[in-house]
Amino acid sequence: MAVEYFEAHNFFLQKGGSLPVARLAYRTSGTLSPTGDNAVLIPSWFSGNDEASETYLTGTGRALDPEKYFLIFTNLLGGGRSSSPSNSPAPSEQGRFPTVTYYDNVRLQHALLTQRLGVEHLRLVTGWSMGACQAYQWAAQYPGMVRSAVPIAGSARTASYNKIFLLALRRALTLDPVYADGFYASPPIRGLKAFAAIYAGWGTSEPFFRLGHYERFGAKNHAEFLEYFWEPFYLGHDANNLLTQLKTWELGDISDSPAYDGDYTKALAAITAKLITVPIDKDRYFPPEDAEFAASHIPNGRCATVESTWGHMAPMDPNLKETFDALFHEALS
Amino acid sequence: MAVEYFEAHNFFLQKGGSLPVARLAYRTSGTLSPTGDNAVLIPSWFSGNDEASETYLTGTGRALDPEKYFLIFTNLLGGGRSSSPSNSPAPSEQGRFPTVTYYDNVRLQHALLTQRLGVEHLRLVTGWSMGACQAYQWAAQYPGMVRSAVPIAGSARTASYNKIFLLALRRALTLDPVYADGFYASPPIRGLKAFAAIYAGWGTSEPFFRLGHYERFGAKNHAEFLEYFWEPFYLGHDANNLLTQLKTWELGDISDSPAYDGDYTKALAAITAKLITVPIDKDRYFPPEDAEFAASHIPNGRCATVESTWGHMAPMDPNLKETFDALFHEALS
C-alpha cells in the first residue's frame, strides 16, 4: 500500500510550541483481523522510514508476515515524510521547526491508530534504534494498549554516553557555514560529510573494521566504506531533519511525562507488556547493560542480547534474520 | 631540568619536503650511568608534552625513578614545543607545516641521543598512546639500540577503525570557517569544541560514563565533563598542531620504511627488544586484539592487557600506577 497521511491540527508539543498541522506519514500491510488482535506497529529509526522498516524487519514467510498480521509502519516527525523541517510551511519551516519528543510521536501515532485505523490494541510494537525507543515509549505511555514489545538496539532513556555521540554529530553538522542556522540555500555538504565520518565510527564496531566486513559494501578500506556507504546515505538527508531527529533521540526518557514525573524505575515498573529487549553486544551507544537494567525493572521483561560484529547495525546483517524472527515469534506467542 | 632544544638543520622528511631547522624539545631527569646502561626514553603522546609524560609515568619511588634511571622526555614534532605549525617560521608556518611521521620523529630523537646525550643504548623506551606508537617505532627502526619496550595503549600500525576516528576529528575541526585552511587569525573555537565533543566519546569508555566516573573531574554529567575537561584542554591547543599530530598518527606503520617495505609482520619479527605491549581492554581505538597480534609476531614480545573503565585514558587512573610500575619493573629486569 502507498504511503498515507494522518493529520492532527493544532498539535501541541511536550516541550513547548505546536504544529498547526502535524502530519504522520504511515503505511500498512495486511489486514486487521475482525477481533482486532493482530496489529503490529513498527515505528521508524533515525534517518529511516516506513519502507526501510518493512524491508529489514518484516516480509512474507518471516515472523512479521503481512499474511498474518496487520503491519503499521510509521515515520518519525522530522524523518522527512511526516511533518519535518524540510516539508513544513511557515512558521515551522527549516530552522524554525520545533523540538519534538518520543512522547509527541507516540501520541500522534496513538491518534492514528485509534481515530483512523480502528486499532485499540497492539499485539506487538517493535523497532530498531529510535524505533526501539518508540517501542519502549509506547509500552510506558499506553501500557493498557500494548500486549508485547521488542525494542531492538534502543533504550528507554538516552544514556549520558549516547548523548556525547549526539552532541558531536550536532556540533560537526552545524559548524558548516553553509548551514546558516538552518536556513541554508543548498545542502551543507561538508557538514554532512563530517557527520557521516562520525557516524561511521559509531554505527558498527571495532571488529567490523578489523575483520574487513566493509568489503560486503564493496569497500576495500575504511575510507571507501565512508565514501560508498555513509556519505551518500547522509548526503541524501536534509540537515534540519537529521537535527530534529537527533534532538528527539537526545531527549528520550520514558519517565519524562506527567505520569512518572522523571521517576525512571517507576516508568519501567508501569510497563505491563511482555517485553523482550534486544541489545547487541557490540552496540557502541546502546550497551546491553542499559537494556539489562531496563528489563530487570519491567515486571514481564526479559533481555535477549544478540552477538554481532555489526554492532548497532546488526538488523542489517542478513545472517541474523532468523535470530530476530525467533524473538518476534516468542513475543507474539 | 628545564626544557632544552636540539636542532637538526635541513632535516629531510619521510613523506617529502624538509624543515630548514627541526627543533626537538626535550627534558631529562636523573643521570646517565658511567656504563650508559640506564637510559629510558619516554616520547610524548597526542596533545601531550614532556611534563605530562613525567607526571603520569615516572617519579621518585616509582618504577621509572630518576634516582636510578636517566629519563629522557621528548616532544612530538607538531606538539607545540618541538618544531610545530605554531612556532615555525616561513616556509613551514601554520597551514604550510609539512607532514611528519613517527619515522621522522624517531630519527630526530636518535640524533639527540647519539649526538648530544651520549646515549648509545636504551634500557627502555615506553610511552602512552602516540608515545607507545613511537616506542614500537624505535624498536623496529633501531632494533640494535633498544633493550626493552613497553608501549601502553598504542599500536605498531594504525588500524582502519582508528583512522575513521582521526578522519572525523579532522573533518570537524577544519570545517570551522575561522580555520581558513590553517591560516587563522584567532583560534577556531567552534571547531575545537566539536573536536572536543568527538574526543570525549572515544577517549574513555561507555562504562566510564554509565558509572559516572566523570564525577572525579568535578562533572555531574556528560555535558559538564565536556565543558570542564575536554573543551578547555583542546581550546588550549593550536589547531594546526593538533592536525599535524593527527597526520603523524594516521600514517603510523613501523613497516613503512626502506628496511621493511610495507611488510608488517617482517617489521614486527625484526624487533629484538623485550617488548611488553599493554593495551587497555576497553580502549576504543587501540583494541587488545591489535596488540596481541603484534606481540605474537615479536620474538621476545608479550601482551599484558590491563582492565580499566577509563579505556584509553587508563594511565591517568591513579589506581593503576602500581599495575604499570610492575610492568616497567618486569621490562627493566
From TrEMBL, chains A, B:
Active site: 129 (nucleophile), 283, 312
SUPFAM superfamilies, per the entry: alpha/beta-Hydrolases (SSF53474)
Keyword list, A-Z: Transferase
UniProt GO MF annotations: acyltransferase activity, transferring groups other than amino-acyl groups
Pfam families: Abhydrolase_1
Location of the AB hydrolase-1 domain: 61-317
InterPro entries (alphabetical): AB_hydrolase_1, AB_hydrolase_fold, HAT_MetX-like
Protein name: Homoserine O-acetyltransferase
Source organism of the structure: Arboricoccus pini
